[in-house]
Structure formats: C-alpha cells, structure tokens
Write a structure and sequence with these properties.
With 467 residues, the protein is of the alpha/beta class. It has a domain of 90 residues: GMP Synthetase, Chain A, domain 3 (2-Layer Sandwich), CATH 3.30.300. Helix content is 31%, strand content 26%. It has a 13-stranded mixed sheet, with helices on both faces. Strands 4-3-5-6 form a four-stranded parallel sheet, sandwiched between helices. Helix 2 packs across helix 3 and helix 8 crosses helix 10. The longest helix is centred in the first third of the chain and has 15 residues. The model has no long low-confidence stretch (mean pLDDT 91).
C-alpha cells in the first residue's frame, strides 16, 4: 500500500481517522482494512455504499489494498441510479447496508484484524471507477489509476504544503473526488489525521478546530456561506492554517466574510471527476475571489478559442479549458467513442469548461461551455461571472444565469433568482455597476427554488426548457 499512501507515518499517537464518534489509529485502520482485503481479493470491481462512516473508510482502503477496482455509490441514490452504477461498473461484491438483489454483500467489521501482506498494485491498474454527476445523461464511470491518484494527491500536497503535521477537517460526501480522494486518501497519503464531521455544519467545523486541532479545512461554497453566517464558529477557524473551497466559485461576499472572521482568505481550486484537482491557489499564492490559481505540479493547461488558437491571457477573453497531466483518468468505462471524443488530436483533455487566463497564469472558471457560455450581441459572456456578481447582492440567496433565445441578441442573459425583497431593476443595475454593461441580465425571474440533480448541481437545462 506504499504506492497509495507513500511512506507517510503518523508523527504521534493521534487517531488516523475520527468519524461519527469512532476513532482508529493507523495500525487499527490498516488492520481492519486488510481484513476487508482478505474478503474481496480477486474481485474485479467492488461497490461501496459511501455512507459517512468509519466503515466506509475501512471498506475503501480494503479494496485498494487488495487491488480491486472501487466504485463508490452515493448512499441516497435511488433504485434506478444504484442499479445503473452496479450494472455499469460490473461490481462483483457489495460493501454496505442491505441491498436486496445485486452483488454478494461482504461485511465490514471494525474489530477485525489481518496481517496479510499485499503487493503494491501496478501503477496503471484501475483503482477507482468514479461516476460523473450525470448532468448530460446517465452517469459515466471515469477510470482512475493508482498512478493518477498518487500524482494528483502529491501535486496538491506540494501546492498546499500539506504534511503529516496537519489535521484535516471536513464533512463532505465520501462518493466523489473532493470528499473521498482528497478528503480521505489525501490524508492517508501524507499521514495527517482526518476528522470527518459527518455533516458540514458550522459548529462541527469549529469543534474540529478547537477540540481536534484542525489546521486544514475543506468545504464547498454552501459550507463556507453557512460558516460565514455563524460568526462564532467562523472565528474558531482562525486557528487553521488553510481553508480550501471548491466545486464552484466562492461568492465574493462569502470570501470577504470568511477572511474578516478568520483572519485569512480561503484558497480556491478547480477539478472534475475525470481529472481530479488540476488547478489550485497555492498556500503562499495570491488569493482572489473566483480565481482558482495555477496548475499543480505535473499538470499543464491551455485555454483556446473556437479556432483552436490560444486566447489572450488578459483576464477577460473566454475560451475552452483543456488539460494534460499525470492525474487524469484513463477513459470512461465501456464508452470508447465518448472517451475518444473527450480528447483533442494532439492529446489534450477537453474539460467542457469555459475559462479565462490572466497575465500571471491564474485561471477563472466561467462555467460549463454547454450551459454557462452565453453569446449575446456578439459578446461571449460567462454565466458564472454574472452569478458571482448577483450573489454579492444581499437580497440574493441563490441564482442561476442562462442564455435564452432572443431575435435581436441571439441570446439574452436571464437570471433565475431565489431571495427576499428582490427588486429586479436594482439587481440589473447592480451587475452593470460591477461588470461590463453588456453582461447585465436583461431579465430577472424570481423562483422559489432552483432545480437540482442528486449531486446538488443546478440543472440549467430544465430552466431553459421551462422558460
């Protein structure tokens, strides 16, 4: 297991993982995981019900020890989604709660111990089959190798000065890259203790700082927004070394509030299921709201226009973000044509995200090219930038910006807004005062809630369809 976890060793007798009131030292964790490995070895793929429990951590580690491909399954997935993931992954075994029909279930016993020695898996072997969120169809299984996991985690450790002396605290789900790969395997690889709060509640993050000595905290914008609204909990994080935000742009108002309450601005980063984290603000780098920094070690990026040429690095010109690197996936399981279409002829992965690049190499993600790039009146407008400006208004709680057909402009910028005491004209002028005037919404539509998928991502296609 040295390949995945490096040569990291704990620097004291602190628990390696603490979750749900259960703590395991590193020897206890690996002993229990090896007992799981004894039960699953020889299986091509093992599905794990990714509940926020120590059992899940043990199950994941056991699969990786045995060299079995691991397919995390969201614990709240419905019957149709679960059946698709199990069928598509070809899972032969199931680690989790009652499943009914499906693969053979294998128990995970925290008290079990095994001293079996397993050889280090081949670097190019598939370690995980991580499923995309399914925003454009059924979830696709992205195959991540042991080599990719190690490269991505080492690149982040270097960027964030992440060492065994840190204590990682987060409450993110254990079925995607942020919560599982970064938030569990990252801690194991560098040897830092992990404190998982089960749910990302402000008070739990504060307890992670005060009671467990947390130095490194992971969250998504919703988590940081809730922490900013709880000043006492936020101030407790002043003990931390680094606050990390990802999965979406952090609203400028939340960025400023967290910085004021904790004494440090968060760092932002960018990644996706297929690439893990490829771009990040370094621990010693400049911190700006909405900007995700520079490529990690071993990753290259480029931003190109429709003609395939590099766009200007002026912080304004939008293009397609493409990446290369050792941490990228090996393709979509069973989908050779889709995999081939995801790469350019000269070997760059098409992320599908629109971005801008500035003169010092910092990236700002505009959004998904398919849903967030709006062409209006001859301008290319990023929905994410308009959303960030709207979220900076105190009346706006949530927002989704889309482009709707317009006979004059081609597309007009329309904002669907959740909030209180909304005055549409005031919001339009608010954006016009912060951004170029052509980026202002032409229309504000008030809604009670935004449509989201099972992963919590806004489904803009439904907004457009029902407009």
């Amino acid at each position: 297991m040295a390949f995945l976890c490096g040569s990291a060793e704990p620097i004291d007798d602190r628990p390696s993982v603490t979750l749900g009131g259960v703590s395991l030292r590193r020897d206890e964790l690996f002993g229990a995981a090896t007992a799981v490995a004894d039960r699953v070895r020889g299986a091509g793929c093992v599905a794990v019900q990714a509940e926020p429990t120590v059992q899940t951590v043990v199950a994941v580690l056991g699969c990786l020890l045995a060299g079995a491909s691991l397919a995390p399954v969201p614990p709240d997935s419905g019957p149709m989604e679960q059946a698709h993931l199990l069928r598509d992954s070809g899972a032969q075994l199931w680690l989790g709660g009652p499943i009914g029909e499906g693969p053979e279930a294998v128990p995970v016993e925290l008290a079990a111990r095994s001293a079996t020695h397993y050889p280090v898996p081949e670097p190019d072997a598939t370690a995980m089959i991580m499923y995309t969120s399914g925003t454009t169809g059924r979830p696709k299984g992205a195959m991540l190798s042991f080599r990719a996991l190690a490269a991505g985690l080492d690149g982040l450790a270097q960027a964030w000065n992440w060492t065994a002396g840190d204590v990682l605290v987060h409450g993110l789900p254990l079925f995607h890259v942020h919560g599982l790969v970064l938030g569990v395997l990252g801690a194991l690889r560098v040897g830092s203790p992990l404190v998982h709060t089960r749910r990302p509640q402000p008070w739990a993050y504060a307890a992670g700082a005060v009671e467990h000595g947390g130095t490194l905290f992971f969250g998504v914008p919703t988590v940081w927004s809730r922490i900013a609204a709880d000043p006492a909990s936020a101030r407790a994080l002043s003990r931390a070394r680094l606050l990390v935000s990802g999965s979406a742009a952090l609203p400028p108002s939340v960025f400023r509030d967290i910085a004021a309450l904790t004494g440090q601005a968060p760092v932002e980063r960018y990644g996706m299921t297929e690439t893990m984290i490829t771009i990040a603000v370094r621990a010693d780098g400049e911190r700006r709201p909405g900007w995700v920094g520079v490529p990690i070690d071993g990753v290259c990026t480029r931003v190109v226009g429709d003609d395939g040429a590099l766009v200007a690095s002026d912080g304004e010109t939008i293009g397609d973000l493409q990446v290369q690197g050792r941490c990228l996936f090996d393709g979509y399981l069973g989908q050779a044509e889709t995999t081939e279409a995801s790469w350019t002829g000269d070997g760059w992965f098409r992320t599908g995200d629109a971005a801008v690049l500035d003169t010092v190499g910092y990236h700002r993600i505009v959004g998904r090219r398919s849903a967030d790039l709006i062409k209006s009146g001859g301008y290319r407008i990023g929905a994410g930038e308009v959303e960030a400006a709207l979220l900076d208004h105190p009346s706006v709680a949530e927002v989704a910006v889309v482009g709707l057909p317009d006979p004059d402009l081609g597309q007009r910028v329309v904002a669907f807004v959740v909030g209180e005491r909304i005055r549409p004209e005031e919001l339009i002028q608010h954006v016009a005062g912060q951004l170029s005037i052509h980026k202002r919404p032409r229309e504000i539509r008030l809604v009670d809630a935004l449509p989201r998928n099972a992963m919590g991502k806004v489904q803009k296609a439904r907004l457009v369809e029902n407009a």
